[in-house]
TrEMBL record:
Entry annotated with the keyword Glycoprotein: no
Domain D-isomer specific 2-hydroxyacid dehydrogenase catalytic as annotated: residue spans: 6-321
GO molecular function, one term: NAD binding
Similarity field: Belongs to the D-isomer specific 2-hydroxyacid dehydrogenase family.
Pfam families: 2-Hacid_dh, 2-Hacid_dh_C
Record-level GO cellular component terms: cytosol
Family annotation (InterPro entries): D-isomer_2-hydroxyacid_DH, D-isomer_2_OHA_DH_cat_dom, D-isomer_DH_CS, D-isomer_DH_NAD-bd, NAD(P)-bd_dom_sf
Domain D-isomer specific 2-hydroxyacid dehydrogenase NAD-binding: 110-290
Protein known as: D-glycerate dehydrogenase
Species name: Alteraurantiacibacter aquimixticola
Keywords carried by this UniProt record: NAD, Oxidoreductase
Highest taxon of source: Bacteria
C-alpha cells in the first residue's frame, strides 16, 4: 500500500518532520519561504494531505486547485485563514492543534501586559540608543498591577490561563465578557466578574486582553466606538487575531493619550505591521511569538501529526474544525 503524500508548507520542528517522514511520503519546505497562492493551489491536485500554518491563506481559489487533498491538517489553533465552507463543499476535512499552546500564549499575554504597564519597550529603546541619563524619580513612570482590573474578552482556555497568572501571581482582579458564564469553580477561584455586555467590561477594565477567534462577528470587534468606551488611561493587549482590532483607531487613541498603552502579538496582514503603530512609543509590538517556545512548537507539530495518522488509518480525527 502506497504512503499518503503529505505537503508541509513551512519548516516544522525537526522531531516532527522526522516523524512525518518515517510514516508518509512527505515534501518539506527546506527553504522555509512562504508558498505562493498558485503553488498552494497546485498542491491540492498533487497531495493527499496539506499541512499549512497560519501564514498560509487557504482560500476558495486555492481549494479549487484540485480534488486530491482530503485533509488540511493545520499547524496552529486558529483557522480563520482557511475557507471552511469551500473545504466542506469539496468534502475536505480540516483539523487544528488546540490545547497545546495555552500556557505559551498566556505567557506572552502576560509579557505584553507587563511590558506595557512598566514601559519596558520604551526603556530598552532609550538605553540602547544611549539616551538614558540615569535614575530619577519621574523617569518612565508606569502602572502597578496589584488591585487593577484585568478585563478578558473571551473566556476560553488561554484567557483562563492568563487570568490565573494575573490573579494569583500579580494580585489583579478579574472580569470577563463572553457568550456565557464560565465554569462556576473557575469563576470562584479567580473571583471573576461576568459582563454580558462588552461595553460594560471595557468601562471597568484597567487592562483589556483579547481572547476571541478571528473572522466573522469578531472582525473589528475593538473598533473606534469600543476604544472610546474603554477607561481613560487603560491598556489593550492582543494575542488573539489581528483582525479583531481597528488599528487606525487604536493608533489614534494611543496618540491622544486616551489609552496609556497597548501590547500586540498579532496583526491583520502579517508580516506587515500597521504603519500607524510603528512610530508610537507607547505600544509594544512582538512578531507573533505566542506559541514560540520549543516545547510548544513541537507539541503543536505532534498534534498535527496525530490528525494525519488518524486520517491515514481511517479513524476519527482528534481535532476537527468546521
Amino acid at each position: 500500500m502506497s504512503k499518503l503524500k503529505v505537503l508541509v508548507t513551512r519548516r516544522w520542528p525537526e522531531a516532527v518532520e522526522r516523524a512525518l517522514a518515517e510514516e508518509f511520503d512527505v515534501t518539506l519546505n527546506e527553504s522555509d519561504v512562504p508558498m505562493s497562492q498558485q503553488a498552494l493551489a497546485a498542491a491540492m491536485a498533487e497531495y493527499d494531505v496539506l499541512c499549512p500554518t497560519v501564514s498560509d491563506r487557504i482560500d476558495a481559489d486555492v481549494i479549487a486547485g484540485g480534488d486530491r487533498v482530503k485533509l488540511i491538517a493545520n499547524y496552529g489553533v486558529g483557522f480563520d485563514h482557511i475557507d471552511l465552507a469551500a473545504a466542506k463543499a469539496k468534502n475536505i476535512a480540516v483539523t487544528n492543534t488546540p490545547g497545546v499552546l495555552t500556557d505559551a500564549t498566556a505567557d506572552i499575554a502576560m509579557t505584553l501586559l507587563l511590558m506595557t504597564a512598566r514601559r519596558a519597550g520604551e526603556g530598552e529603546r532609550e538605553l540602547r540608543a544611549g539616551e538614558w541619563s540615569g535614575w530619577r524619580p519621574t523617569h518612565l513612570i508606569g502602572s502597578a498591577l496589584k488591585g487593577k482590573v484585568l478585563g478578558l474578552v473571551g473566556m476560553g482556555r488561554i484567557a483562563i490561563a492568563t487570568a490565573r497568572r494575573a490573579h494569583h501571581g500579580f494580585g489583579m482582579r478579574v472580569a470577563y465578557y463572553g457568550r456565557r458564564e464560565c465554569d462556576p469553580a473557575v469563576a470562584q477561584e479567580l473571583g471573576a466578574t461576568f459582563h454580558p455586555d462588552l461595553n460594560g467590561l471595557l468601562r471597568e477594565a484597567d487592562f483589556v486582553s483579547l481572547h476571541v477567534p478571528g473572522g466573522g462577528e469578531t472582525a473589528n470587534l475593538i473598533d473606534a466606538d469600543a476604544i472610546a468606551v474603554m477607561k481613560p488611561g487603560s491598556y489593550l493587549i492582543n494575542t488573539a487575531r489581528g483582525g479583531v482590532v481597528d488599528h487606525e483607531a487604536l493608533a489614534d487613541a494611543l496618540r491622544s493619550g486616551h489609552l496609556a498603552g497597548a501590547g500586540l502579538d498579532v496583526y491583520p496582514a502579517e508580516p506587515q505591521v500597521p504603519a500607524a503603530l510603528l512610530g508610537l512609543e507607547n505600544v509594544v509590538l512582538l512578531p507573533h511569538l505566542g506559541s514560540a517556545n520549543s516545547e510548544t512548537r513541537e507539541a503543536m507539530g505532534m498534534c498535527a501529526l496525530a490528525n494525519v495518522r488518524a486520517y491515514a488509518s481511517d479513524k476519527e480525527l482528534p481535532n476537527p474544525v468546521g
